[in-house]
Specification:
Chain lengths: 225, 481
């Protein structure tokens, strides 16, 4: 089956989104993680513009614009405003799993999501769904993994937002006619997540002097009260 | 119209809390707004009882039996918890200067909690559930101590992580709905009528994604680990809201999805829900045995009751659905009472350790007797309402022929009962170590405890006709056969 140019470009975006998810797993510098997140969001917006063009859907154009406004502009700005500069210069010394092993696990998650979505992808004839659904699920799973493996607060937050990107990448294919109001509400919500978690991170940094999540291990059932 | 007012009042109150001349009366503003909302939700539910459905804006804000029930529960707990916090927040280590911050967050949480059941469009419901999580994170970390911030962080990461997974579930639902009907504006009601023509595999997938995503938020095992931390570290009135209704609200969304999936009998989702529900009940029952902190004890009991509700909904018969919604009602009113009492005890003895609270009946007769009452009620002793709803769930299981489920559930409930009563026994009776009652209990706290205790005692012996009608309408929405 010959694919149209926008669909082929969308597949390219899908590949780059996957690569940027891997890059987020591989980066140690907090600043670098944020940068790759911005690149991934730009790719998501590009993909929704492409599909909006090929399907003639205003909704997808709006979604692309909302993505740029919320994730490329607003969230990095909010994090800059909330957190002092030295948060960004940090390097993570300790990670629960080292980087080569993490990349291998991310690869396994990608293969797993290909298999998980297999039966659904077989049932549809839409070539875009066939690309976006597995890649979107892989984005969610890799984001969840980096949330578990990361020790610093900001990369954990970016992990959550990257999961959101994965959900939306699948969403542009399967729910392209979603009411614009719902998309707007989701964007506002994503910014609020960044604000609340950023505030929390700042308070933790001020109270405990560190933003390593590993320092937060006081509350356990067996700890002597 | 009433539904619009229900959402507008808390938003307005949240704004008023920041107006400079009004900063000293933020408590009064919040009490006023939550009580007004409670009256409005009663109005909505009477409208639902008489005409089955209340409509604020068609397609946007609609209430049926299930949402009216959740609305009433949420607003009841919110109003009493607010009255309770008047006396509570003035004591102890809470920073007085930040009270406007506390009450405006509280109003925003109220707005989000009320929005979930009154919104009719599922994608907007997702947004509202996320707002609930975010505003409760702010309140959990309010004290700004190291342990409160740790609890807030765990809570934020574990529950927000579920959000994108659930979002994919909502997208899948929309995909299924659109390919079956061609419409692009979905409502709960519209989806349920179209459910029989929708692809059952996709429906099942969307339900599972939402279950994983929102199950964490309602504290179902094995994603419950944030719950005891958040519910023990937050200021006590916030715990009452979190444990009483914040867990019920995502469960409401799960039940909505469950009712859609159950329309197509091919999906054997019901059995899975029973298994997962029993897992929560079992895990909570055994953790209850070794708990050391009485606020954590009540938090684990929340996990137990969420499991009971899920099990009942999974049985999916008409009577078990009735049991599930009455358990929802009874748990919300009883659990919030438990946390008010826990707050009173904390004010009286200023420790959360079960071991160091002894002979409460002698040092503080009010706190001691109320603790005994609320623990018997939450553990499910007759004649309290939880006993009635658990009994009806068990008998519904018997009638459905699920003897193994009934046996396991009954054993686990008994274990949880023994665990709670064993801890409480020492706290209430026993020999008081020190008579360290520092000051008299604030009047607003006593008032909130007494008002909260009234329905717990009353509903055990007599269910008024409107309550019964509302429960029946809510049970019909769950779609058991």
């Amino acid at each position: 089956m010959p694919t149209s140019v926008p669909d082929a470009l969308n597949t390219l975006c899908a590949g780059l989104i996957l690569i940027s998810a891997f890059a987020m797993v591989a980066t140690r510098q907090v600043q670098g993680v944020v940068r790759f997140f911005v690149i991934q969001s730009l790719l998501l917006a590009a993909s929704s513009f492409l599909l909006g063009y090929s399907r003639g859907s205003v909704h997808l154009w709006a979604l692309g614009a909302i993505t740029i406004g919320a994730k490329v502009l607003a969230i990095p700005w909010v994090l800059r405003r909330l957190l002092p500069g030295d948060f960004y210069e940090r390097r993570e010394i300790s990670q629960a799993v080292n980087i080569p092993a993490s990349l291998l696990l991310a690869l396994l998650l990608t293969v797993a999501s290909e298999f998980l979505t297999g039966p659904l992808v077989m049932a549809t004839h839409d070539p875009v769904v066939r690309v976006n659904l597995p890649i979107g699920l892989a984005g969610i799973l890799i984001g969840a993994y980096s949330l578990i493996a990361r020790r610093e607060a900001i990369p954990q937050l970016i992990g959550i937002l990257a999961m959101e990107n994965g959900a939306f990448f699948a969403g542009v294919a399967i729910a392209s006619e979603l009411p614009i109001i719902a998309e707007l509400a989701v964007a506002v919500d994503v910014i609020l997540i960044a604000v609340v978690v950023g505030l929390l991170t700042r308070n933790i940094g001020q109270t405990l002097g560190t933003t390593e999540a590993a320092a937060l291990s006081e509350l356990k059932e067996d700890s002597p009260a | 119209m009433t539904l619009i007012a229900i959402l507008a009042v808390p938003l307005l109150a949240a704004l008023l809390c920041w107006v400079r001349p009004l900063r000293s009366v933020t408590w009064g503003i919040t009490v006023g707004s939550t009580c007004a909302v409670f009256a409005l939700t009663l109005n909505v539910s009477s409208e639902v009882i008489s005409s089955r459905r209340a409509i604020g804006i068609a397609g946007w804000l609609e209430a049926d039996g299930l949402s009216a029930l959740v609305l009433v529960l949420v607003s009841f707990v919110l109003a009493l918890a607010c009255i309770f916090s008047g006396g509570y927040m003035r004591h102890g280590e809470h920073n007085q200067g930040r009270l406007p911050w506390f009450y405006s967050s509280y109003n925003l949480l109220a707005f989000a909690l009320l929005a979930v059941p009154s919104l009719a469009e599922p994608n907007m419901v997702w947004v509202a559930v996320e707002l609930v999580t975010l505003f409760s994170v702010l309140l959990v970390g309010f004290d700004n101590t190291a342990s409160a911030l740790e609890a807030a962080w765990k809570f934020a990461v574990l529950t927000i992580m579920g959000a994108p997974i659930a979002l994919l579930g909502f997208f899948t639902l929309f995909w299924t709905y659109r390919s079956a009907t061609g419409g692009s504006w979905e409502t709960w009601e519209g989806i349920r009528t179209a459910a029989s023509s929708m692809d059952p595999n996709l429906l099942k997938l969307s339900f599972l994604l939402v279950f994983v995503g929102f199950g964490a938020k309602s504290g179902l095992a094995p994603m419950h680990t944030w719950l005891p931390d958040a519910h023990s570290q937050a200021p006590t009135p916030v715990c009452a809201v979190l444990s009483g209704v914040k867990t019920t609200v995502p469960l409401y969304v799960i039940l909505r999805f469950l009712s859609i999936v159950l329309v197509s009998p091919a999906a054997r989702i019901g059995n899975w829900m029973v298994v997962l529900g029993l897992l929560s009940v079992g895990l909570a029952a055994f953790l209850l045995l070794q708990v050391r902190d009485y606020k954590r004890m009540f938090a684990y009991s929340t996990v137990e009751h969420m499991g009971v509700i899920l099990t009942a909904a999974g049985l999916a018969t008409g009577t078990s659905d009735f049991g599930a919604v009455s358990q929802m009602l009874n748990h919300a009113i009883t659990k919030s009472l438990c946390f008010y009492v826990a707050g009173v005890i904390l004010l009286a003895v200023s420790t959360r350790e079960i071991q160091s609270v002894r002979g409460l009946l002698r040092t503080s007769p009010f706190a001691g007797s109320m603790l005994l009452l609320c623990s018997l009620a939450i553990a499910g002793a007759p004649p309290f309402p939880i006993f009635l709803s658990e009994f009806s769930i068990l008998s519904a299981g018997m009638r459905a022929g699920q003897y193994a489920v009934v046996a396991i559930l009954a054993i686990l409930i008994v274990i949880a009962f023994v665990a709670i009563m064993q801890h409480v026994n020492g706290m209430v009776f026993g020999r008081p170590a020190v008579t360290h009652l520092t000051e008299a209990l604030p009047l607003s706290c006593r008032f909130a405890v007494l008002v909260a205790a009234a329905p717990v005692v009353l509903l055990g012996v007599y269910i008024p006709a409107p309550v019964h009608d509302l429960l029946q309408l809510a049970a019909q929405q769950l779609g058991g056969h």
